[in-house]
Q: What sequence folds into this?
């Protein structure tokens, strides 16, 4: 297992923990952030 793979998994688990989302909700949230970043992420703050 590569270090890059471990970091990716760690980031996803940390996101789930910090947001308190269920796994399927977190998956949808990550998908929206990656595919529709301009609509869901405010870069002004």
A:
């Amino acid at each position: 297992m590569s270090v890059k793979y471990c970091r990716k998994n760690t980031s996803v688990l940390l996101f789930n923990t910090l947001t308190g989302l269920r796994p399927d909700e977190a998956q949808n949230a990550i998908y929206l952030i990656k595919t529709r970043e301009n609509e869901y992420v405010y870069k002004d703050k």
Notes: The chain has a mean pLDDT of 81. The radius of gyration is 12 Å.
